[in-house]
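Problem 12. The chain below contains 161 residues. Write out its predicted structure in token notation.
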Amino acid sequence: MKTKKLCVMVLLGILLVSCAGCGSGITKPQVSYVPADWALVAETEDDGVGVLMYMDSEDFDTIAIAYGEISGLFEGAEPEDMEMLTEISAMLIFEADETGTMTIDNLTAGYAKAYDSDSDTYDLLIAFTYENTLVEIIAIYDAPVANEVEVMSLIESIYMR
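Solution.
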């Protein structure tokens, strides 16, 4: 199950990059803390839209950080691209067990979190804006509390400069 979700995240990242509009004035998120056994496994930026992907080498917990210009994230996409984007976005939608707000780098972020009992994992989606930049964070991680601590430590270390 985690492999399918990871594939969806990678496809979303590729589509975000390939369908991006002009991205002048965006700010790339930075990460100041990466837990042991975690690494930046993919980084791409094109036309002002980017994706940073971090993964735990022990159990493959994954965090994808997508960012781009708020007003032009999908600008220039062809109708067939938009249909595919919609299909992939629908696959990412889950019935949230918990929603709310949190703070990342003194910025208010909205989040939705769900437990998937079939795979014993959590899905977490976080979104916030900074100046002209939209940041979306997607995390998929195993249920043990230690995994959540690692995931949240990395996410809470994100800063915008």
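Discussion. Residues 99 and 112 are 4 Å apart (CA to CA). Students who got a different answer should revisit the alignment rule from Section 12.3.
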